[in-house]
Each structure stands twice: as structure tokens, then as C-alpha cells.
Known about the structure:
heterodimer; A: 390 residues; mainly alpha; 21 helices; B: 462 residues; alpha/beta; 10-stranded mixed β-sheet; two-stranded antiparallel sheet; 12 strands; globular
Amino acid sequence: MGAEVLLYAYGLVCLSMLVFNLIYGLYLRTDDRRRQRRIGRLRRRMESQLNRLGETTGSAEQPLPVRHMTWMRRRLSHISGLRAFDELMHELHGNDAACRACVRQLQPVLLDLAIVYLRRENTQAAYFCYFLSRYRLRRHMEMDQLQSVVLSYLKRDNLYCKINALKALCSFASPSVLADALVALGEGRESQLHEKVITEALFSYSGESAALIERLWACLDRFSLPIQRAVLDYIRFRSGMHCGRMLEILTDPRRDKELHLAAIRYFGRYPYEPAREELLRLLRRGDASHWEYAAISASALSAYPGQETVDALLKAMNSVNWHIRNNASVSLQAHGLTYEEMLRVLDGEDRYAREMLAYRLKARRLEEQAASDGAQPYRKTARKGAAVSA
Amino acid sequence: MSFLFAVEAFFILYMILYSSFLFLSVAVGSSDLYALKRRKRLENELSNDYYVPVSILVPAHNEEVTIEATVRSLLALDYKLYEIVVVDDGSTDRTTELLRDAFQMWRIERPIQRQIPCQPEEEVYETRAYKVPITLVRKKNGGKADALNMGINVSSYPYFVCLDADSVLQHDSLEKIVRPVLEDGSVVAVGGTVRPCNGAEIENGRVIRYRMPRNLLAAMQVLEYDRSFLASRILFDRFNGNIIISGAFGLFLKSVVIAAGGYDAATMGEDMELVVKLHVYCRENGRAYRIRCVTDAVCWTQVPVRLGDLCRQRRRWHIGLFQSMTKYRNILANPKYGAVSFVSYFYFLLYELFSPYIEVMGVLTTILAFAVDLINIPFMIVFLGIYVAYTALLSLTAFFARLHTVDLKLHFTDVLKAVGLCAIEVSLLRFILAQVRMAALIGYRRKKDTWGRMTRQRIEIK
Lengths: 390, 462
């Protein structure tokens, strides 16, 4: 005896879970109806205010009545109310002038709500940040207090809360607050976050990107390594005006290898004559333990025409490393050499180089054929950040 | 007498541990699924287009019935940065011809970087006429693991997904399976959720109608899969202890797989072997790593509808389990492996590998106890009834947890079918499969490389 008592106890808990799941299933079936009712109530309250604001936008805006603000504060402090408001704004095309004016006037309510949701559990807190990021409070108002409260969300031990808070800050915060946010993000457990996520969040920054980039450069050494990589990627996709600083990074031996590689990619996108020598040096070095330098330099050199580059790339075709050969063959194509010419130059001495060139030739023909048949060429669908073979 | 008491104590302990594990896994799985659903409703997820480049590897051996539909379904995925690599592992049917003609593929001399040893390629075909590149490699037969190694060598991207040729990915499954990688850069492998597609109607990677399969054997496997994927793997995921990622659908970081040596072509359970190998490689080399599983990245696969096919499949799985467990036996009770050793490995050893033998020993001991009049038969029947009711209840709890997953709705007749079949699955099917697993290792050395054929059915994809 005893063992079956344990089974009874376990069974009872399972039965409770089963009943809970069934009740939850029924609840979900009626969830849509309840949400629509909530949206209807909000719409009735909001429409008259939006009409009033719509009539006065452009001239002196009429303030929202205090009674309405109090009602909104109470309503939106419930997560279901906030979701309903989110959907309503979406329905009403939240970006038109009246809606923007409404959100602007709701600023004190949002500040109160930010403090309310900061005390809530992680899922709700993350949703509040998501809500803020959607309604683009923009920089049409200085919301210093809200910025500092949202910064506190970044200190919570929850991944989604941090990401949504970062996106919210990208939508309305100043460059310096955003830099502080990136420092905070690199300190916690989420420092393992993939740099793509950070880079994408920075892309949503709605202010002046030049000012943001300046600030990011100034704080670069305060960021953790993954954040530094994400920042360099962001700069690569946003501006070609930072070649000098990138060259400093590339030639600084104290910097991490990943930062060097990010700098090499930058010079592939934005040709910079003073970087040519360094790229050629890295390609020629062909260090087996750091082959990535040579492989990515081979790609980057496609943007640096000249006999010296072509000679170095042709030599790289004899590399023992597959990636270096592959990238060099693609770059040689960019320099205008036909593969038939390249085959002649190589004179068939190196079987691996010959195979690689022959493959590139055929692959290009397949791409051209696909394009002439009206198929969407694959390369054009690939987004930024597509991996090179290396 | 004292022998029988010792046996009784062992079985009570064995059952208590097993019941506790099942209870814990279903409770944790169910609550995790509820939390996941809630997070989704409140937009707590990575929703942007973060395209981690992924190569989808499809090993195929005599798959002419399903391969075209599988590749077409892969072209319908909601993902931009991926490639499809089909490896025809020396098929004797028209697998290569069918693919070549259906997708206008051209023969090409492609230099293959042979980072992992595998059988040589015979022909390589490519096409660029679709939204993503498709590559077909025809190679000398070497088994599924060997075909996957070839796929890894051919692939261009840093992550790869392995996919069975008779499976279909849900339209958003790639996006979902890469999320753990974005959330944590130390993730080296992610297991998706595999669901039986018997009974499902799939259009453009979307399930437009799902009912429990009419075939009772397939319907019982639905209950079994729900219990396995929606429960125990979630529990193991809590402590980075998953040592199985189904070969039907999993994502891996290519560089780590190559460094660890790739798939072992000599093993029948290459999927489990690789995951255990990754644990060993990362721990021995002091690499911080995570092996995750996700419940919302779904792959639909055909489950056997004939008992013979099911028995052959389970025999293969059990041999694979045996090979992996014996190959990495140094994990057992090794503090360096933490929970992987003391929970995961121990669980698989005791409740998967040895369980058929222990169960048969239980039956024999019961007969012996009956012979010496040491058994209280009414109590034994009641106890057995309680145990069957309990495990059936667990299966149902896992089944109803699907409420928290996307795209699956409960229908009244499905509920009736699940309630009706759960006790049969737990008592009868489980017992039959225990016999199969017990017999699997008999003559294992002689037949260890024999996969056995499974009858394929055309997948209904619109």
C-alpha cells in the first residue's frame, strides 16, 4: 500500500489539469466575442474624442477631458483593455493625425501605465513595451520620464521584456538613452542574444540615424562583444561614412576577430582605397587557422578593381581552403573576367581551381536561364545579412 | 521468498519513479504549453523577419512516391533564406528522374567540400528556377546517416535542418525552429515537434482540416506522439537534457556537427547518436551550449498504419537506442555530465532500453508468485486497473494540451476516439511494442544494418 495512494494523488492532479484545459478551451471559444465587446465599448468612448481632435488638428488642439483620461487610465491598466485599445487603434489606422494627437495627449496616462506595468508579471510587462513600440510615440515629444521608466524594463530577467523594451526605445528614445539600453542589454543573461535581433531592433529606430551612429561609436567600448558586432552590422547597412573608423578597427590587433570580420564586410560594401592594402594583405596571408580573414577579404575585394587585386584573387584560387577559392572565383567574375578567360589564365594546372571555376560558370548560366524564363532570381530575394559561404 | 520480496520492492520503486516521471513531464509540459499560448497572445515572441540562413537536407532512398510532394511543400515555406538539398542515397527506383524532371534540374559539376567522410557522389543536379536553390545529389548507397553527411558537405549555410523524405513542414516551422538560436547564441541544436499527418489535410503547408486518423493504429500513435513530444521533451528541455532530436525534423549548427564528426553511418539511430555526441563534444571541450526543443515548429509525418511496419520501425529505434547508449556508456553516473547523466541517460537506460526486459521479468515473477501462492489476485487486478487508468489519464492530459498549440482544434468525435483508445494504447499496444523491443536485440549483430521496408503512401498536399 502507499504506491497506489501516490497514483491516486498524481491522477487527481492530472484530472485537474484535464478539467482546466477543457475549461480553458471553452474560454478561448468565447474569447473573440468578449474582445469585440471590449473594443466596441472603447470605440464608443474614443470616437467622439477622435472626431473632436480631428476637427482641431493643425490648429490649437483641444485637450482630452480629464474624465476621459481617468477612464482610459483605469481601462488600459487591465491587460485585456490594453489589447482592445491596441486593436482599435490598428482598426482606426493609428497613424492618422487624430490618432497621433490622441496618443500624444495620452502621454500622462502612458507614463502612469508604464509604472503600473513595471510591477506586473513579465508577460504583461513585455506586452506593454510591445504596445509602446507599435504606436511610435516618435520624437514629436520629449518623454524623458517615460524613457527612463522603459529603461527599467530592460533590467527585468525576461528576454521578451528586454527585446520589446529595446524596440519601444528605438521608436521614441534619444540616442544616448538607446546607447544606455544597449549597455544594459549586454550585461544580463541575454548577452547571448543573437546579434541579428539587436541589429533589426536598431533598424526600427525612427530618429536621425546619423546622430544615433555617432552616439554608438562613442559608446562602442562600453558594449559587450555581441552588441558591438550588432552595432557594426547596423552601421554597415545604414551608412558608408565611417570608413576611417572601420579601418582603425580592422588594424587594431586588440579587437576581436569578429569585429575585424565585420569591418572587412563593411569595406566590401563601401569601397575605401586606403583599406585595399590591408585587404590584399589578409588575402595573401591565407593563414590556415584564420582562413575566414582571407575568405571574406576575397569577397570584399570584388569592389576593388585593378590588376593587383586580380592577381591576388587568381593566386587565391590555388588556396587549399574551399571557401577562399569559392569567394575568389565570385570576385573574379565581378572584375569582368569571363570564366573562359580565367580557365585559360589558370591553364588547368590546379584541378580544384578548375573545378570551382567550371562550377561557377555553370551556376551563372543556370541563374541567367532562370531569369530569362521569368523565374524570380534567387539572389534578389535574399535579404540583407545573407551569409557568405565562409 | 526473500527473492520475491526483493523483486516486489524493486518493482514498487520502479513504478513509483516511472509514475513520478510521467506525472512531472505531463504537468510541466502542459503548463509550459499554456504559458507559450499566453505569451503568443501577448506578443511575447520574436516577430520580425530574422532570417538565419538554413539548408534543408532531405535524405531519400526509394522515395519516388513522396519526394516530389515533399520538395513542393518545402518551396511553400514562409521563409526567405534557405536552400533545399535532396540526397538520393542510391535509390533503385525513379527518385532522381522524378525530381530532375519535375523541377527542371540540370546536371552540374559541383566541387564538394568533403568535411565529413561519406560515400562518393555520382551526379549533382541544380536548379535556380524557384524562390530558393534546389540541389539534388545522387550518391552511392550508404544509409541515411551517410546521406545526411553528404548533405552537410554540399550545404552552403551555417545551419541545417534534417527532414525525412516522407514528411511535410508546416508553413511557419522554419521561422519557429530558428527562434531559440536567435534567443540564445549558444544553441547548437533544436528539435521540432513531429506530428502524425495521417488524417490531416494540408494546403500550402497549412493544416486546413485535422481529425484523428481513421486507422486505429495510427490514432493510437497520435496519443503516443502527443505524450512524447508535448510532455517529456519539454521537461528535458528545462535542464538542457534532451538526448533525442527526431531525425524527422531538427535544426543543427553545422560547424559544431562537423567538429563533432557528423552523423555516425554505423549507427541505426543516427538522430539520437548525433545529439548524445553533441553533448559529449561540447562538455569535453568546455563549450557553453544549449540543445533546445520547440513545440510550435511542427513537422507532419506519416506513421505506420500496419502493425508489421510499426514493429519494424520500433525494432530499428530500439537498436538505435541500444547503439547510442552503449557507445556513450561513459556518460552514466559521470558528474561531468550533470543532469544529462543522472536524469536523461538514466531515464533512457532504465525506462526505454531495459523496460521491455523488466516488464517481462515482472510478468514471470507474477507467475512465480502465483505458483507459490504469494499473490493477492483481487488486489493485483485492482492495482493493474489503477495503473492503466492513471497512464491513460496522463495520455489524455497530454492529448488535451493540444488546445494550447496552434492550428489544432478539438472535435467531439476525436475526443471520443482519444478517450476510447487511450486505455488500449497503454495496455495492449504498449505491451505488443514491448515484445518487439525485447526481441529487437536478438540477432542484432546479424541484422543490425537492415532497415526493413515501410509501405509509403502519397501525402495529400494541395
